[in-house]
Design goal:
The chain contains twelve helices and 19 strands. Strand 10, helix 4 and strand 11 form a beta-alpha-beta unit. It is α/β, with parallel strands linked by helices. The strands form five sheets. A six-stranded mixed β-sheet has the order 9-8-7-10-11-12, with helices on both faces.
Length: about 550
């Protein structure tokens, strides 16, 4: 049976945006909006929040649309969603300066791990201890580093520090992977009381100041803790002048490390009552470089994401001939070729830019089931989406710049509840609208078609960078396979079309591993680090926050 008409969303009436259903695979031709011009920008995963102006007046009329509707008439108007008179898009995304190419760079990275006794406990309902998860994730992080020297002798280096009521260097900077794993073995059985978070940053900085530091490598520190700071000295007579609280002392220690040029990432393992989220965010080099891990199982993905964030902006080098210092003579004298300039990598100069985001959320009937945490998957998904929208800068800044978001749903068909807009009330109303359309089916192919269609139908300014976030709690079903393709191949084809149009795709699997098709969703995203998985809705807000941080370019 066809999808019911979505209710009208009340916004200024002078610029309506109607949505017409796309024909099913057996029906009429698929309607596609023209792909907007998108500036070519190399995709890199790092953590900086900046923005570039994008502005374009809205058209006097437009069409939102639905894919896969059962109506025999592909031009059926489903709902009217008005636009404001001018739309500008924003989302954190750093782009490199002119004449700049992205290239890999080597790093000296120090892992600083909390060794307090609380790390031996699990976070219910998980049975994995925080200690086991942290050590396992750290091993995977080490594996992802480039510790084998290249032809020029360059390589990453790893150092390992432990802290509780004191701090110690378990391993000085080295490119020896076996030594790193041995150090993690020793740390895994070393715990004591105390969480001197100030010493964590000071201990990491001491390793960076050690004799093994390579000046050509970028300095990176990753600090993990599962608790609130305690036993930290502060006030008169402490090492932290002017501090009035433990938190002030910790921030001074973190600021001192950052002042030396070290990029600091922080990870809070546990819930909001376990760790001081605001403090860890402030201690990181950028708010998006703070990662919240509500469960131990989240650590592997966080470390994996940090491991791939090793990019530098390397301007193209040109040879600079050396001018002769001697006066010219009448006889030509053979000379050796002038030396070429030695390439010197320089950091990217961030330029602000804005990005349109298309949220696409599974509205199959299974979303009404419980997450096991006392709420339904649907409620958790919508609450997290509202939180994500709340993080966006929808209000215009002094130059009129702002974020933009579209909201779509899918089950046996798909539809857009609100097109690209910077109206927070309209976006939240669209989320409520989604909740009224639960139905059977999980047409993952339509999810990607609809998400991209929402981006293409909106008013796009030059240089706007598109992103799509697709959340599902089930494996694709009801997907009609293209001739000569399997259903999975059909889904991946639709995702690839969006990526070919310049859209960065993030996918989220909500449910047990047996419920979601991880391999398919990873492949649809195009990069395993852009796929996120959570067995319950408790982690969704943190996942959305991590995605917001990932929508950045070179540091």
């Amino acid at each position: 049976m066809g999808h019911p008409l979505a209710p009208r969303i009340s916004t200024p009436p002078e610029r309506p945006l109607a949505r017409a259903s796309l024909a099913r695979a057996t029906g009429g031709a698929v309607l596609r909006a023209a792909v907007a011009t998108v500036a070519a920008v190399a995709t890199v995963a790092t953590v900086a929040t900046v923005a570039m102006i994008v502005a374009h007046p809205a058209p006097r009329s437009g069409h939102a649309f639905a894919a896969g509707g059962t109506s025999a008439n592909p031009a059926v108007v489903r709902a009217a969603v008005p636009f404001t008179s001018e739309l500008r898009a924003y989302l954190p995304y750093t782009v490199k300066s002119p004449a700049c190419r992205l290239d890999a760079t080597t790093v000296d990275v120090v892992l600083v791990l909390d060794r307090s006794t609380s790390m031996l406990r699990p976070i219910e309902p998980s049975v994995v201890t925080k200690n086991d998860a942290a050590i396992g994730a750290a091993r995977e992080f080490v594996r992802l580093l480039d510790l084998t020297p290249d032809a020029a002798g360059r390589s990453d280096q790893i150092g390992i520090v432990g802290f509780n009521d004191t701090v110690w260097t378990e391993l000085a900077l080295t490119d020896d992977e076996n030594a790193a794993n041995a150090a993690l073995d020793r740390l895994s059985v070393t715990t004591a009381e105390g969480t001197r978070l100030d010493l964590a940053f000071r201990g990491g900085a001491a390793v960076m100041d050690g004799p093994n530091r390579r000046a050509a490598n970028r300095a990176v520190m990753v600090v993990l803790t599962d608790g609130l700071p305690n036993r930290v000295p502060y006030g008169p007579g402490s090492p932290y002048p002017g501090s009035a609280r433990q938190e002030d002392a910790v921030r001074q220690a973190a600021d001192a490390a950052k002042a030396r040029g070290t990029r600091v990432y922080t990870i809070g393992l546990g819930g909001a009552t376990d760790v001081n989220l605001g403090l860890l965010e402030a201690c990181a080099s950028d708010p998006s470089m703070f990662h919240e891990a509500p469960r131990p199982e989240d650590l592997a993905a966080i470390y994996r994401g940090i491991a791939v964030q090793r990019r530098i902006c390397d301007p193209a080098q040109t040879a600079t001939p050396r001018l002769p210092t001697d006066a010219p003579t009448s006889t030509a004298t053979p000379t050796s070729p002038p030396p070429t300039a030695t390439p010197t990598p320089t950091a990217c100069i961030p330029t602000t830019q804005y990005t349109d985001v298309s949220l696409v959320i599974d509205m199959s009937t299974s979303m009404s089931r419980s997450t096991g945490g006392g709420t339904t998957k649907l409620d958790a998904a919508l609450a997290a989406a509202r939180s994500f929208i709340g993080q966006m800068r929808l209000a215009p800044d002094a130059m009129g710049r702002h974020d933009q978001v579209a909201v779509s749903g899918f089950n046996g068909e798909s539809w857009t509840s609100v097109g690209l807009t910077n109206d927070a009330a309209a976006a939240e109303a669209a989320l409520l609208d989604l909740a009224t359309h639960l139905n059977r089916g999980t047409r993952l192919d339509l999810a990607f078609v609809q998400g991209q269609a929402a981006l293409e139908a909106g008013v796009r300014g030059p240089g706007n960078l598109p992103a799509m976030i697709v959340l599902t709690d089930g494996q694709g079903n009801g997907v009609p396979a293209d001739p000569g393709r399997t259903t999975d191949e059909t889904v991946l084809d639709r995702a690839q079309r969006a990526k070919d149009a310049g859209t960065t795709i993030f996918t989220i699997g909500l449910g047990a591993p047996t419920d979601v098709d991880r391999a398919l969703l990873e492949a649809a995203a195009g990069d395993p680090s852009r796929y996120f998985e959570t067995p319950n809705g408790d982690d969704l807000a943190a996942i959305y926050r991590r995605i917001a941080g990932r929508l950045t370019g070179c540091p």
